[in-house]
Specification:
Distance between the termini: 44 Å
Helix content: 55-70%
Strand order of the largest sheet: 2-1-3
Largest sheet: 3 strands, antiparallel
Structural class: mainly alpha
Strand content: 5-15%
Number of strands: 3
């Protein structure tokens, strides 16, 4: 019985962690999407129009930069908000 309670607690914790995970234009963020936002902002400020310019050691920065190049808007959403948007379409 104790094992079942511990498993239920773990499932609950993992579920809430997954529900609060943020995405940036469909890309999973590790924490607050600041790396993605920095890449997007940099590409916007420098009027980048080629994904080959989005090549740094930072995957999140690159994904944000690519979001700008693709003209996707670069909106950061939680998974819950993202699901709500999908339902509206």
């Amino acid at each position: 019985m104790k094992t079942l309670s511990v498993m239920a607690l773990l499932v609950s914790i993992l579920s809430s962690a997954m529900a609060s995970a943020a995405t940036f234009d469909g890309n999973q963020c590790l924490s607050d999407c600041s790396g993605h936002q920095a890449g997007y902002d940099w590409a916007e400020q420098n009027d980048i129009d080629d994904e080959n310019s989005c090549s740094t050691p930072s995957q999140s920065f690159n994904e944000g930069c690519q979001s700008y190049v693709e003209g996707s808007g670069g909106v950061a959403l939680s998974d819950e908000e993202d699901e709500d948007e999908d339902e509206d379409e």
